[in-house]
From TrEMBL:
Gene3D superfamilies: MetI-like (1.10.3720.10). Keywords: Amino-acid transport, Cell membrane, Membrane, Transmembrane, Transmembrane helix, Transport. This is Amino acid ABC transporter permease. The lineage of its organism: Bacteria, Pseudomonadati, Pseudomonadota, Alphaproteobacteria, Rhodobacterales. PANTHER family: L-CYSTINE TRANSPORT SYSTEM PERMEASE PROTEIN TCYL, MEMBRANE COMPONENT OF AMINO ACID ABC TRANSPORTER. The chain crosses the membrane at residues 20-46, 58-81, 189-210. PROSITE patterns: ABC_TM1. SUPFAM superfamilies: MetI-like. Belongs to the binding-protein-dependent transport system permease family. HisMQ subfamily. Residues 22-203 form the ABC transmembrane type-1 domain. It is a multi-pass membrane protein.
């Protein structure tokens, strides 16, 4: 019983610190997700304008940022920008790096959702006098967003786990706190077990929601 009491005390002490890191993880996830979705939606809509130079620039952005490791982008944001006089704190550097990387993926997610709709949708909107922009806003995007919700949910789940790389630029998220705790207490196994539980608590409900969306999408089809 004494051993269990000691284990409980240590777990509670570690969990208090790790929960602070979990709060930072949620902040990074939300900030990066909003940035990525905004970039992805704007660029996916811009690709429908069929402007060749613009489409070429968007394609370059997508290929470059999908091809670069996320950790490299974080190092560029945190260390590289100092050479041009821009000094970012760890938290905004992590959000910007993850957001730029995710924006490339979200661009393709939204492009696929828009492309999945039959071209007759645009023709019908034009037939009733809608401009291309109004057709995109009121006809195309609402349907495309319904299609893209499940893959966006999967992206969000991956993003929660990808925030772990932010510890490399000293953002005080879960793994950063865990690494410091391990150095201070040498209670490594228990600490990382608690980390795993916290990640599971954050991702499991989102995974169930994505499964629900997938079932609804199949029902719509």
């Amino acid at each position: 019983m004494e051993q269990f009491g000691d284990l409980f005390t240590r777990s509670a002490s570690h969990l208090e610190v790790l929960l602070q890191g979990a709060g930072v993880t949620v902040m990074i996830t939300l900030g990066s997700f909003v940035m990525a979705v905004t970039i992805g939606l704007v660029l996916a809509v811009a690709r429908t304008w069929k402007i060749r130079p613009l489409n070429a620039l968007i394609a370059i952005y997508v290929e470059v940022f999908r091809g670069l490791p996320t950790l490299t982008l974080l190092f560029i944001c945190y260390f590289g920008l100092t050479y041009v006089g821009i000094k970012l704190n760890p938290l905004p550097a992590a959000i910007i790096g993850l957001g730029l990387s995710g924006g490339a993926y979200c661009t393709e997610i939204f492009r696929s959702g828009i492309s999945a709709l039959h071209h007759g949708q645009r023709e019908a909107a034009a037939a009733i006098g809608m401009t291309p922009m109004r057709a995109m806003r009121f006809v195309i995007l609402p349907q495309a967003l319904r299609i893209t919700l499940p893959p966006l949910g999967n992206y969000a789940i991956g993003l929660i786990k990808d925030t772990a790389v932010a510890s490399a630029v000293a953002a005080p998220e879960i793994l950063f706190r865990a690494r410091n705790l391990s150095t201070e207490t040498f209670d490594t196994a228990l600490i990382y077990l608690l980390v795993a539980v916290l990640y599971l608590v954050m991702t499991f409900p989102l995974a169930r929601w994505v499964d629900h969306l997938e079932k609804k999408r199949k029902a719509w089809q």
